[in-house]
Amino acid sequence: MYYCDGCGPKTRRKDSRLEEMPENPDPKIDEDLEILRRLCADVLNGMESWHTDSDRRRAKRYFFEATSNIQAEESEINGFLQWYTYDFRDAATRRTLLEHHLETHGAQLTPRERVLLEALRDSWPGVFEAETVEEGRGVHLRDLASGETIFVQDITASRELVRGDCMLSRIEQLDGKLMFVSDFFSVPPAVKGEFLELIDKDARAAGQTRVEYVRRSGNLLYRKIRNLSDKWLKNLQVVNREGDTVEFCRADYSVLDEPALLVKLRSLAELKEEPGKPGEAHFAWLETAVQGPRPVYGHVQAGGGHLFLEVQSRIRLQLGRGLLESHAGGLLKHQGDAFQSLDEIKRQIAASREPRERAEAIPAEVEREMILQMKARHYATWADDPLPALGGKTARQAVKTKSGRNTVLDLIRSMENGEARRAKDGELAFDFTPIRKTLGLEED
Predict the structure, then answer these.
(1) What is the Cα–Cα distance from 346 to 145, expressed in whole angstroms?
(2) What secondary structure letter does DSSP report for 313?
(3) Cα-based distances in Å from 320 to 221, 240, 267, 310, 327
(4) Please, which residues have CB within 8 angstroms of residue 62's CB and are 6 or more apart in sequence?
(5) Which of 300, 288, 304 lies closest to 325, judged by CA?
(6) H helical segments located in 173-329
(7) Domains observed in the chain
(8) What's the rounded Cα separation, in Å, for the pair 108 and 128?
(9) Can you tell me the mean pLDDT for 51-78?
(10) Are 327 and 253 in contact (CB under 8 A)?
(11) Most buried of 163, 235, 263, 417 (most Cβ within 10 A)?
(12) First CA to last CA across the chain, in angstroms?
């Protein structure tokens, strides 16, 4: 369900009773699974008896916003069948397929079959956010419509979800426990706020509360998530504080006189020396024309006969090279520049996860550390970079107002959610605590 590296809505089949749970030794669960598979097939087959062609066309229009032939992903088909079984009502009787089945075949059901179907009949859709995960047991969810907190017993969900995950799913109460009974659709953190605002707007137009609207509009909610996510992805652009497209750039120099070079670098007001490895000197390239905390433009590393300048845009690389060459040009020899876009880095990371046969492959732990260092440099200027999500303000500027503070918190929580998911996948997660402290948000 997650980050995206969060991006468009995804589904995951949850650890509901409609799935195998081989790690659970309780034979009663296996019996319930077999009963449900058979009953759900019987219920869905009932559409031929209880739904007219007009009903089926209407259901298709309600969910897919189309009546002609469509190309749908598996997740969309699963979502449609679940909604069609649990929520869609025919025009003649205003009953769902589950209600029809219980009324028509109820007398032939065993007591356990009736309990299972009645629990499905009374289940409800909702939009939930994971607040606490008890791995191996379940998840504490906040219902974003009602504000209530519930505990869902779901082993698989507890192993996959992380704090901050937001989803559209369906919940039932069975044997005194709350459980997931459907696939769920991820609400990307970047669109959660807009999604909830849209729910409130449509609920007011329908004369309903948020809870009423959510529980009656499972078909509409999925489509809203999909549309908002597609729009966000289409408009997504990562820029730095100057508005330039983020690109990881590096200038390489050979050093002709290292002692003299270090003296020169340490004399520049734009460079601030930082702790580094033995035999290396590290400098942050900082803005000089501001009061208070100085934004970071890039980093310089010198040692072993080489100097490297690393920045996050081509414009910054040109300016950084100009700074170095104007003050220390006689001590350096330029060897070349290298550029990597975010898309190229993502492709490299994806390729690095494929099986490798070459002996010279980078060890996984080294690769993870390299990625973490890249993130640290990327986020070094985050608090002082103008952000489109903040109307062009920096996070440091935005936190001065209550609304801006809340928006910055949402952004940080979204990023923390993505890092938590990466940690669950075995990657090294970036710690946002220093950024929180910088902005005075460590207690939130």
Answers:
(1) 35
(2) S
(3) 49, 15, 16, 9, 11
(4) 88, 219, 220
(5) 300
(6) 189-205, 210-216, 218-235, 258-267, 314-328
(7) 11-234 (no CATH), 241-354 (3.30.160), 366-444 (no CATH)
(8) 36
(9) 84
(10) no
(11) 417
(12) 25
Q: Are strands 332-341 and 138-143 parallel, antiparallel or unpaired?
A: unpaired
Top-confidence residue, 240 or 227: 227
Whole-angstrom distance, CA of residue 93 vs CA of residue 83? 18
What's the token pair of residue 20? Answer: 């195998």
Question: Per DSSP, what are the bridge partners of residue 311?
Answer: 249, 298
How many beta carbons lie within 10 A of that of residue 41, not counting itself?
A: 9
Residue type, 300: V
Please tell me what DSSP assigns to residue 390: G
The pLDDT assigned to 68 comes to 76
pLDDT digits (tens, 9 = 90+) for 262-310: 999 999 999 999 887 788 999 989 887 666 667 788 899 999 999 999 9
What pLDDT is stored for residue 5 in this prediction? 31
Q: Are 313 and 242 in contact (CB under 8 A)?
A: yes
Query: 221: which 2 tokens?
Result: 């909610």
Rounded to 5°, angle at Cα 275 from 272 and 281: 70
Give the global pTM: 0.61
